[in-house]
Inverse folding.
């Protein structure tokens, strides 16, 4: 149902009261303001109604209202009221984004017709945005793998298709391309109530340690499994019901066969195979992916999203990103910290404070990338275990807090 709401901005008290009464009789909720300063607190991007504003007002006028509304939401309709002598001014307002303008005094039917059209327009915009947000919330593939390149569109399609199929899945691609994230995305896309567990096959796997009930089991580094670990995976496949196994590797199934992985295991898995493209294969996605990583960093820092200069986007596009997403994430982290530092005066954010902030963020991101495994994180950073734990203690970071759910 369309929400009938109008923010009425008019400095003439008698005229404002008259217009408000007329609109109220037509079932329209009216928010009244005598000028820009009083109105601005109601002008929000989620405002479901429209703005009806006089042009000529003392201090800040209708153009200030229009400019502010445009800065908040370019699709928020603003209907302007003008005196007969102000028609050129009203035409200027239309050029600057006003929805429509009316000369004072105007017939009630004319005003209602314009406002009704504006309200229908706003309702359509609001409904479309809600649908887009709902789709985004319900589509982890779009959230975790943003971009418009054909390879990433194909990947999202493939992830959606296998999510609810009774299939085991093999994800392969370059180191850092996002195989683990793809596995989690498949789990998130599934409409089943399942538990997601991730194992690095560098470590021993014990079937008895797995949770009971429906399970998505993500197994990393299939190419390095020992014969004992392969036998354990085969045992899980033979004895457990309600389990979906997602294996990840830098090698395809055919390459794994050539490496003499157990034929019994590969035949029992018989997985659907999905290639995860490298950043080199999805180069046109780099700007939106980089911006997403910067946004994640600023959220972790609890700072505002900085304005990213075109020169930085140019650097992002120019590099090959051999390490794929982790390498791009490190660059995004460095840039986000640097860009945010420029917003502060030196006294507000000293060099020591900047270094502490950056170090804490790098430690957090490394723990997150390694699923809270302190040993793996220490190795990734090239730090002795004791030094690594000393750093964690300094910033009150606990590895267990970074384990994936």
């Amino acid at each position: 149902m369309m929400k009938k709401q109008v923010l009425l901005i008019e400095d003439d008290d008698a005229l404002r009261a008259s217009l408000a009464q007329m609109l109220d009789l037509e079932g329209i909720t009216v928010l009244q303001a005598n000028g820009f300063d009083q109105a601005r607190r109601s002008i929000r991007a989620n405002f479901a109604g429209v703005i009806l504003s006089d042009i000529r007002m003392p201090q800040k006028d209708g153009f200030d209202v229009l400019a502010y509304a445009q800065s908040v939401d370019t699709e928020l309709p603003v209907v302007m009221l003008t005196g007969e002598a102000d028609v050129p001014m009203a035409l200027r307002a239309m050029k600057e984004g006003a929805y429509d303008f009316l000369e004072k005094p105007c017939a009630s039917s004319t005003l209602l017709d314009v406002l009704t059209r504006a309200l229908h327009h706003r309702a359509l915009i609001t409904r479309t945005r809600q649908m887009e947000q709902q789709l985004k919330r319900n589509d982890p593939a779009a959230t975790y793998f943003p971009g418009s390149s054909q390879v990433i569109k194909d990947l999202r399609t493939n992830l959606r298709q296998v999510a609810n199929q009774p299939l085991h899945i093999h994800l392969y691609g370059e180191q850092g391309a996002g195989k683990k994230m793809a596995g989690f995305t498949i789990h998130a896309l599934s409409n089943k109530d399942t538990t997601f567990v991730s194992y690095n096959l560098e470590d021993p796997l014990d079937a008895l340690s797995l949770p009971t009930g429906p399970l998505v089991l993500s197994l990393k580094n299939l190419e390095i499994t020992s014969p004992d670990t392969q036998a354990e995976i085969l045992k899980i496949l033979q004895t457990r019901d309600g389990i979906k196994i997602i294996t990840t590797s830098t090698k395809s199934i055919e390459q794994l066969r050539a490496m003499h992985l157990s034929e019994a295991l590969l035949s029992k898995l018989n997985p659907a195979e999905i290639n995860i493209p490298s950043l080199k294969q999805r180069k046109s996605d780099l700007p939106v992916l980089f911006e997403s990583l910067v946004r994640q960093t600023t959220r972790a820092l609890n700072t505002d999203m900085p304005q990213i200069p075109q020169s930085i986007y140019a650097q992002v596009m120019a590099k090959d990103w051999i390490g794929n997403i982790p390498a791009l994430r490190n660059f995004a982290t460095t840039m986000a910290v640097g860009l945010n530092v420029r917003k502060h005066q030196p006294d507000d954010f000293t060099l020591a404070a900047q270094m502490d902030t950056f170090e804490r963020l790098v430690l957090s991101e490394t723990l997150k990338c390694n699923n809270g495994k302190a040993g793996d994180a220490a190795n990734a950073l090239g730090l002795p275990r004791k030094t690594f734990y000393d750093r964690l203690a300094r910033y009150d970071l606990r590895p267990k807090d970074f384990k994936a759910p």
User: Anything to note?
Assistant: Residues 283-402 form one domain.
